[in-house]
Amino acid sequence: MSFWGFVAVTLSTVTNIQAQSGAGSSIQVSQSAMSRQDRFRWVTMTTLGPKNLGAGVFIAAIQTWRDEPETYGTHWDGYAKRYGARLAAGGTTNSLEAAFGSFWGEDPRYYRTEGQPLTTRLGHVVKMAFVTQNKLGEPQLAYARYIAVPDGILISNTWRPGAPSTAGHVTLQVGIGFLSRIVDNSFPEFIPDLLDRKHSSPQDSHTP
Asked: Is the CB of residue 93 less than 8 Å from the CB of residue 149?
């Protein structure tokens, strides 16, 4: 199955999950268009924020296990190089997505589905790797992301040693890029819940 075939199957699956759970109307999105400052803040936080840095640990581990690219090797030094390369490539991709999206008002920010069933929230985490909001707050395919991810990879491959730009290799990198976005989305979706439980647990333990 091609990558875009995988995207189509994924979107169909998570859409069915959300339709069955009736959670579509619970997502609170911004009612105002993103300003230049908003887009700059989004690029900065998406690239250097804790959720992306945390996702990088997971993605760099997969690439080290696969020994991709081979020139980095499978030791800690190679892991660090992959982590740094992903961070630089991600910054390029995020900048391109913010720039392209500004032309037609795409809002790439992630919005939670707090209070919904777990299956709905998991489906939303996956779906929002491929879907975003337009300037009216309505869901639409993330066109700017579909342009930015492969372009960012091709740009980063020009300075990454031993990074072939064959169609198959780039397709694999694009898949990893969207996998990274899914991992990124899981942080704002679930971390606040874990923090709330951590803060409330001492109080609950003293409740008679």
From this structure: yes
- Tokens of residue 189, six digits: 């979706």
Over the stretch 1-38, which tens digit does the pLDDT of each residue have? Answer: 555 555 555 555 545 544 444 444 456 666 567 899 99
Residue 174 — φ and ψ, nearest 5°?
-65, -45
What DSSP string runs through 21-51? HT-GGG----SSPPPHHHHHHHHHHHHHSHH
Q: Where are the domains of the chain?
A: 3-192
Asked whether 7 and 66 are in contact (CB, 8 A), the reply is no
Query: Which run of H or E residues covers position 168?
Result: helix 167-205
> Does the N-terminal peptide bond of residue 192 adopt cis geometry, omega within 30 degrees of 0?
no
- Read off the pLDDT of residues 124-172 as tens digits, 9 standing for 90 and up: 999 999 999 998 888 999 999 999 999 988 887 776 656 666 777 778 8
